[in-house]
UniProtKB/TrEMBL annotation:
Coiled-coil region(s): 75-132
Lineage, highest ranks first: Bacteria, Bacillati, Bacillota, Bacilli, Lactobacillales
Domain Histidine kinase intervals: 41-255
Species, as recorded: Enterococcus saigonensis
Subcellular location per the Swiss-Prot or TrEMBL entry: Cell membrane
Protein name: histidine kinase
Length: 255
């Protein structure tokens, strides 16, 4: 009787090892697949503006430059391509920084000041869309955090609220802190339907690709938000209704 039991146990253990191994391989493959997808997406996103830049440069050199109006029109397009490249490169650097797990210093940030600084950099868009922006929170509130991760979170949420709001809408930014910091960005923009809400935090996922590119988006903003929030041990929540608007809420614990 004892021998049979031994054999059975060994078989069981072997099976278990096989199970554990195949589970690990699935994870490795998934990670590899994600990295391959990312690289191929990046290549595609980089190639598009570069191809356009080369095309317009060649056309200008071939003689189009002799017409001042055409030259201006082409240079405007080329400026847009170059800015898109710049935004992509900045976002890719930010993502790779977040992954490197660098020992960023923890600093005291005055939330109101950081928000004002970000809003100033979008003043042109806010003004041209005639958006009404409200800040609600203690103007003296400070929070100890890794600014290199915290800043991009807030910047990307505000940038999206501005980008996806029609003219004359209201954007509300509220924050408060106790044991955790809660920061909400609410817009009255286009909103996001339930199916897309699951996916918009993925790298390069965009609800409306053509429209998002037109607005200068890289498709990496919310991936940066999610990955940076996770590095800070926090979470990001989304409540959105198509045609009504969206609220992104970031909750961060003390570091
Ligand atoms: P993008 O550079 O395209 O804005 P993001 O990663 O920041 O990339 O966002 C992914 C997608 O999520 C956007 O393309 C857009 O479809 C949707 N989205 C993000 N923020 C908002 C918002 N505030 N309102 C409506 N849609 C949004």
């Amino acid at each position: 009787g004892e021998r049979v039991l031994d054999v059975d146990l060994r078989l069981f253990n072997e099976e278990r090892q096989v199970l554990v191994m195949s589970y690990d391989m699935t994870q490795v493959r998934q990670l590899e697949k994600m990295q391959q997808d990312f690289v191929s997406n990046v290549s595609h996103e980089l190639k598009t503006p570069v191809t356009s830049l080369i095309g317009f440069t060649e056309t200008l050199l071939d003689g189009a430059k002799d017409d001042p109006e055409t030259t201006t029109e082409f240079l405007r397009i080329m400026e847009k391509d170059a800015k898109r490249l710049q935004a992509l490169i900045q976002d890719i650097i930010q993502l790779s920084k977040g992954q490197q797990d660098l020992d960023y210093p923890i600093q005291d940030v005055t939330i109101a000041e950081l928000l004002k600084q970000i809003l100033e950099s979008y003043e042109a868009q806010i003004h041209s869309k005639n958006l009404n922006i409200t800040l609600t929170g203690d103007s003296a509130l400070t929070w100890s955090t890794k600014v290199e991760l915290f800043y991009p979170i807030v910047k990307n949420l505000i940038e999206n609220a501005i980008k996806y709001s029609p003219e004359k809408k209201k954007i509300t930014i509220t924050y408060h802190a106790a044991d955790t910091l809660t920061l909400c960005v609410t817009d009255q923009g286009v909103g996001i339907d339930l199916d897309d809400q699951q996916r918009i935090f993925e790298r390069f996922y965009r609800v409306d690709k053509a429209r998002a590119r037109q607005s200068g988006g890289t498709g990496l903003g919310l991936a940066i938000v999610k990955e940076s929030v996770e590095k800070l041990n926090g979470k990001v929540q989304l409540e959105s209704h198509p045609g009504v608007g969206s609220t992104f809420t970031v909750i961060l614990p003390k570091l």
